[in-house]
Design brief:
Number of strands: 5
Radius of gyration: 17 Å
Strand order of the largest sheet: 3-4-5
Strand content: 5-15%
Number of helices: 9
Order of helices and strands: HHEHEHEHEHEHHH
Length: 171
């Protein structure tokens, strides 16, 4: 529930039928809401939904390559959201809620994705709607890859080392 997966389905149901007919929601991972999401997808208005289940790191790349965008509408407690790094690395724009920790650092509205208000179905729908115009745009894919390019293990290690030095030096 904290990932907002039910909010995603409700947001997609708000699109007019011609738009909704072109959309498919793919849930990667498994959780307690899967059965209720499956049932809800069949109720009018219907939404094409697929469940890929849990995917390990060696299998996940193919799902990023098949997707047009990543949506992470977490409601609370998403410390960073490493899946956003992965998606951007694959050139996918990301729609995330403002409860996702990496949102201010990685998601630049209109450049690498969109940010919506946590828990708001309408805000998520609007963010997805704005993102639909980016599908297939090469410059969006390049901007996503460029943005995440600086977020490497070496960059993180350097930041940790600098923070450590500041603490031990009393600054």
């Amino acid at each position: 529930p904290r990932k907002g997966v039910d909010i995603l389905l409700r947001a997609v149901k708000l699109f007019p039928e011609p738009v909704r007919a072109k959309l498919a929601v793919l849930y990667v991972g498994a959780g307690e809401l899967q059965d209720s999401l499956r049932t809800e997808a069949l109720h009018e208005p219907r939404v094409a939904v697929r469940f890929a289940g849990f995917q390990n790191q060696r299998q996940i790349s193919r799902f990023y390559h098949a997707a047009d965008m990543l949506v992470l509408p977490s409601v609370w407690s998403e410390t960073w959201g490493l899946v956003v790094n992965d998606a951007l690395h694959h050139g996918l724009p990301c729609v995330v809620s403002d409860a996702v920790g990496c949102a201010p650092d990685l998601v630049l509205p209109g450049v690498t994705g969109e940010i919506c208000s946590a828990g708001s179905v309408d805000s998520l729908r609007l963010a997805i709607e704005r993102s639909l115009t980016w599908i297939g745009r090469r410059e969006m894919r390049e901007a996503c890859r460029a943005k995440v390019g600086a977020y490497t293990v070496q960059y993180a290690a350097k930041g940790i080392a600098e923070a450590y030095q500041q603490v031990v030096s009393g600054r």
